[in-house]
């Protein structure tokens, strides 16, 4: 007699305002760590003299939009999703912008789409700013790296999920719902 395949579902999401305490600590660490090489290379006085400017507000808003767009682009390309399968918005209670994929995708595609904004809007700009000695962009990049902590949390929750799993982005919480094939 053949075993019938069934699906087992795991909800790996949490409300945005209920992220674990370690997430907030990591956010602070991720804010400071990118600044240390700048201060070591160029000095604290140069950092404080150039790190803050009015231009950073519109630049930060553009980077926040880019962060969410990079999620969508990663999930579209790696997961094969159509543009109509994305919703964008702001969870006002947590002051968190979001990109929500409305269709399931392989866990590898979900992981890629989750990590890309950290790299594209945080790490790469931080390295370029550090090389250029630009305190303002170094600070802004550190903020973007720190802001990716929710994505890092989601990646952490997926660390034991097998490659064959299908993942659905949770529509209103940090994380996702995982569908595993299980023999019955």
The main sheet orders its strands as 1-6-5-4
Q: Give the strand content.
A: 15-25%
Q: Based on helices, strands and strand pairing, what is the structural class?
A: alpha+beta
Give unreliable regions as ranges: none
Q: Indicate the percent of residues in helices.
A: 40-55%
Task: Tally the beta strands.
Answer: 6
Please give the radius of gyration in angstroms.
19 Å
Shape: elongated
How many alpha or pi helices?
Answer: 7
Overall mean pLDDT score? 90
Fill in the keyword field for this structure:
184 residues, alpha+beta, two-stranded antiparallel sheet
Explain this structure to me?
With 184 residues, the chain is an alpha+beta fold. The chain has one domain. The strands form 2 sheets. It has a 4-stranded antiparallel sheet. Strand 5 and strand 6 form a beta hairpin. The longest helix is centred in the middle third of the chain and has 26 residues. 30% of the residues are buried.
């Amino acid at each position: 007699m053949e075993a019938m395949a069934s699906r087992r579902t795991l909800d790996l999401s949490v409300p945005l305002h209920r992220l674990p305490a370690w997430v907030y600590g990591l956010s602070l660490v991720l804010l400071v760590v990118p600044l240390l090489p700048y201060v070591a290379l160029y000095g604290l006085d140069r950092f404080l003299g150039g790190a803050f400017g009015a231009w950073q507000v519109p630049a930060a808003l553009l980077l926040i939009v880019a962060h969410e767009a990079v999620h969508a682009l990663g999930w579209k390309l790696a997961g094969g999703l159509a543009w109509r399968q994305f919703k964008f918005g702001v969870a006002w209670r947590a002051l968190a912008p979001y990109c929500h994929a409305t269709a399931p995708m392989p866990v590898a595609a979900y992981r890629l789409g989750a990590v890309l904004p950290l790299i594209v809007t945080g790490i790469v700009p931080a390295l370029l700013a550090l090389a250029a000695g630009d305190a303002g962009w170094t600070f802004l990049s550190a903020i973007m790296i720190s802001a990716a902590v929710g994505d890092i949390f989601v990646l952490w929750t997926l660390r034991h999920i097998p490659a064959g799993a299908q993942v659905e982005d949770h529509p209103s919480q940090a994380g996702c719902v995982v569908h595993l094939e299980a023999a019955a």
